[in-house]
Write a structure and sequence with these properties.
This protein has five helices and 24 strands. It is an alpha+beta fold. Strands 1, 2, 17, 18, 19, 20, 21, 22, 23 and 24 form a ten-stranded mixed β-sheet that branches. A six-stranded antiparallel beta barrel has the order 3-12-15-14-13-16. The protein has a four-stranded antiparallel β-sheet with strand order 4-11-9-6, with no helix packed on it. The protein is elongated and about 135 Å long.
């Protein structure tokens, strides 16, 4: 009997506890409990999502090169003498024919005058010899002159004519040397500093000094070495002049200037496996100067469709490259990709993505694969994603 009473008492206590819990649930409301549990779940992370870009592109290869002048001239004296004037500022731009230096012209002007006098004397002698030769011809017709005298008159006329030609050549040489006293620019371009100034004596010959240097500015070359595969693919055909080529300078992220292939060397360097190529670019603004470093991008082949994304959306997992893709249910998926070349600030994806795919471009650190996210649609940009509709 006591055991049965204890069992009944325990059952009564259990029922009382259940009833109390039910009363509390009814008092505060079941919806309140449910809301508390839901509130404990973390909200979906908000991330910027952009649709990949699909467009037609042309494949490019990028190389390192140097800017070179088409014309590089060392200005040396062609006559000896004393420099009496310098007519340019260091680093100035000059046109073809502009006066750069003046060498004392007085000795050469005197030589011109002397040669002119000798020519006049030779012409006078030639006039007399020509008249005497004509007279000898008339006398010979009348058989009134000895054959010996006739031959001497003829020979004197020929010698006098030769003397005139020699004197005329000497005068021309003297005039050329006088012209050399005015040192002019052989091409248009930019001069360096004056290596010799007023008062210095210059001489000609093997030890002739460099007075200054002059480089042409526009157009200008960019020289670079391409690998064998690029040469065979793009530059080995007669249509190489139509191959697009662009350059970018050290302070630029893109390729600001477009040019054309001007020449390809006649042999491959077997030690490096490359061949030297020169491209020609317009340089009307004079920004490009010989010696500057340049990034050269060479393209070719038929345009083809490609998927492009921002480099900022590409992550690295050891040796793999991947992006975070957002599916139709707004869940994050891990997607391994293979990278191609850059095109106008965007990275080509050769494998792993399809047109229409959406990828996370901002907020990758807040999500993991299979997480639900709240996507904020933005536009794909080469520098950074911008909100759709913003300027």
């Amino acid at each position: 009997m006591p055991s049965k009473r204890k069992l009944v008492a325990a059952s009564a206590i259990s029922l009382a506890i259940v009833a109390g819990v039910a009363a509390i649930y009814q008092t505060f409301g079941g919806e309140s409990v449910t809301s508390s549990v839901a509130a404990a779940a973390p909200p979906a992370a908000e991330v910027d999502v952009a649709a990949v870009i699909s467009q037609s592109i042309t494949d490019y290869q990028t190389y390192s090169g140097r800017i070179e002048a088409i014309n590089y001239v060392q200005i040396r004296p062609l006559v000896s003498g004393t420099i009496v004037a310098v007519h340019f500022r260091d680093g100035a731009t000059v046109n073809k024919g502009d006066l750069l230096f003046t060498i004392d012209p007085r000795p050469y002007q005197a030589e011109v005058d002397r040669a002119a006098a000798q020519l006049a004397s030779a012409e006078a002698r030639n006039g007399y010899a020509s008249t005497d030769w004509a007279r000898a011809q008339r006398l010979l017709t009348d058989n009134a002159i000895a054959k010996r005298d006739y031959d001497e008159a003829q020979n004197a006329d020929r010698e006098a004519l030769s003397a005139v030609k020699a004197a005329r050549a000497a005068l021309e040489t003297a005039r050329i040397n006088l012209g050399y006293t005015s040192v002019t620019a052989p091409v248009s371009g930019r001069v360096s500093r004056a290596e010799l100034t007023v008062g210095n004596v210059v001489s000609i010959g093997a030890n002739a000094p460099v007075m200054t240097t002059l480089v042409s500015m526009s157009p200008i070359y960019a020289s670079f070495d391409v690998d064998e595969q690029t040469y065979l693919r793009f530059l080995s055909h007669d249509t190489k002049t139509t191959v697009p080529v662009r350059i970018g300078l050290a302070n630029e992220t893109g390729f600001s200037r477009q040019g054309v292939i001007d020449s390809v060397d006649n042999r491959l360097d077997t030690s490096s496996g490359t061949i030297r190529v020169r491209a020609r670019f317009d340089n009307a603004d004079g920004v490009l100067v010989p010696g500057l470093y340049a990034r050269v991008r060479v393209g070719g082949g038929a345009p083809h469709q490609a998927v492009l994304v921002s480099d900022a959306a590409i992550q690295t997992d050891q040796e793999k490259k991947f992006v975070l893709l957002v599916d139709k249910e707004n869940k994050v998926q891990y997607r391994e990709v293979k990278l191609g070349e850059q095109h106008e600030g965007l990275r080509a994806i050769s494998d792993g993505l399809q047109p229409g795919d959406r990828i996370v471009v901002n907020g990758m650190q807040r999500v993991r694969p299979n997480d639900a996210v709240k996507p904020n649609l933005v536009q794909m940009s080469g520098d950074a994603a911008t909100t759709k509709g913003s300027s």
